Amino acid sequence: MKKAFILSALAFALPLVSSAAISNISDVGSFIINVINNIIVPVLFAVAFLVFLWGAFQVFILGAQSDDTKEKGKLKMLWGLIGFFVMVSVWGLVNILTGSVSFGNNAGPAGGTPRAGFQVGQ
Question: Considering 2, 11, 16, 104, which has the largest number of Cβ atoms within 10 A of its Cβ?
Fold first, then answer.
């Protein structure tokens, strides 16, 4: 079981390693933020959604006769919603950081170089 988990983790991580052409610190920041936004966050959203669905299944299907099963399902639904809330919050903070720091923007200021009203050196 452990071998299968390690092999599947390596299979998923191989594209990350092969596309990791990092030449400066700005590329490192962009790479980390892209991994968070494109891989980690969607996987955690899926896990939170599955926990919520499993809790709903326990409450409405399995817990039809048992109050104990209903309570366990309600608790799982609560943890699924907490997971959604935490992930939306973290994802929003990462996007705010990306927009304010602007990794990968090597163009300089948006307005360009300030110019005087006359030419110097003619």
Answer: 104
